[in-house]
Amino acid sequence: MYLFQKIEEAVFKQNDARRTIGEFILANREKISGYSMEEIAGMTHTSKPTLVRFAKYFDYSGWKEFTYAFAHEVAQFDETNLDANFNLPFDKSADTLQIIENLADLSMQTIKETASLISLSDMDKSSDIINQANTTVIFGRSPNSYLGESFKRNLNTIYKRSLVTNADEAGLIANSLTNQDCAVIISYSGDNPETYPMKNVSILLKNKVPIISITGGGENYLRKYSTISLNIASRERLYSKIANFSTEESIRFILNVLYAKLFSLNYDENLQTKINDSRHLEGLRKTTFMDISEDL
After folding, report:
1. Rounded to the nearest 10 degrees, how much is the dihedral formed by the CA atoms of 122, 128, 131, 137?
2. Sign of CA dihedral 47, 48, 49, 55
3. Residue ranges of the domains in the chain?
4. For 97-125, b where at least 16 C-beta lie within 10 A, e where not — what string?
5. What is the pLDDT of residues 41-78, one digit of tens each?
6. 12 contacts: CB under 8 Å, gap ≥ 6
7. Rounded distance, CA 145 to CA 18, Å?
8. Contact call for residues 30 and 74 (beta carbons, < 8 A)
């Protein structure tokens, strides 16, 4: 997770000075670097030692180091000048056309940013790992598991054995995997090692299973222990949003690119497989729309 997301999580979960300080920082994100510790302590009705403890809660040595990291992150996010509001893409006054246009803009900007975050070498390595794996198992909570189901189906269509696990059976399945298999773990935050799906990472590491993580930016538990990490566009807040519009669009695009790259490794064979299977399994499908009809 990025630092601003960790602060939001603290605001949501804590009921002490961390909430007060966190709320102030999130509400004044562009101004924080211009305030002194005394000013922030006064405006939050806390103290300088409390601010230092707040910084150390996020693993920074002191307040100065914390504010430097936060200001750098704010600058990194603001420099792209994206128009879409990723958390509240429309308000209660929006009509149908505005909702359509705003969500279309959000989707296009999310895909462009996700594409810019993809490392070509990491995508190549990820596709090679899946291509060589006996079984690819996808770990993720809902709604990530739904996106994983679509990816699983695509893999199965080119005869790459894949399955999506759930929280109840994940431990059993993880323990059955070997270094000849592959785990794809989808988690926006990538933290909380005691919860699913991160709690299965230790089992996968014990069995030397290659781990491809699809996770948000910044350091997190999942990224630390993954063989390869593919980056979700991480502009959404953890809680204060209408839906996971941008996150789901980003994950879907990553999985589609990963499947497309995998498909390209054996392009002619995979294409012929798809055509032959479609003829066999879908030969009875009919359409009156000539643009999509085919002679099978």
Report:
1. -40
2. positive
3. 3-78, 110-279
4. eeeeebbeebbebbbebbeeebeeeebee
5. 999 999 999 999 999 999 889 998 898 888 877 766 66
6. 238, 239
7. 33
8. yes
> Shortest CA distance to 163 belongs to which of 154, 172, 152?
152
Alpha-carbon gap, residue 126 to 134, rounded angstroms: 14
Whether omega before 49 lies within 30 degrees of 0, making that bond cis, reads: no
232 CB neighbour count, 10 Å cutoff: 29
Strand order in the sheet with 182-187: 162-164, 136-139, 182-187, 211-215, 228-231
* Contact call for residues 133 and 108 (beta carbons, < 8 A): no
Closest CA to 205 of 179, 231, 186: 179
Question: What's the token pair of residue 41?
Answer: 């302590």
The secondary structure of residue 16, as a DSSP letter, is S
Q: Are 234 and 216 in contact (CB under 8 A)?
A: yes
Q: Which of 247, 127, 116 has the alpha carbon at shortest distance from 187?
A: 247
The H or E element that residue 211 is part of is strand 211-215
Residue for token digits 């991160």?
198
Contact of 20 with 44, CB cutoff 8 Å: yes
Is 1.10.3720.10 the CATH classification of the domain at 3-78? no
Q: What is the CA radius of gyration of the chain?
A: 22
Written as six digits, the tokens of 243 are 């839906």
Listing DSSP states for 179-238 in one string gives TTSEEEEEESS---TTSTTGGGHHHHHHTT--EEEEE-SS--HHHHH-SEEEEPP--S-S
Question: What local confidence, expressed as pLDDT, does residue 23 receive?
Answer: 92
Q: Dump pLDDT digits (tens) for 183-206.
A: 999 999 898 899 999 999 999 999
- Please state, in angstroms and rounded to a whole number, the distance separating the CA atoms of residues 207 and 178: 5
Low-confidence ranges of the chain (pLDDT < 70): 75-82, 282-296
Assigned CATH topology for domain 110-279: Rossmann fold (3.40.50)
3 SS3 class: helix
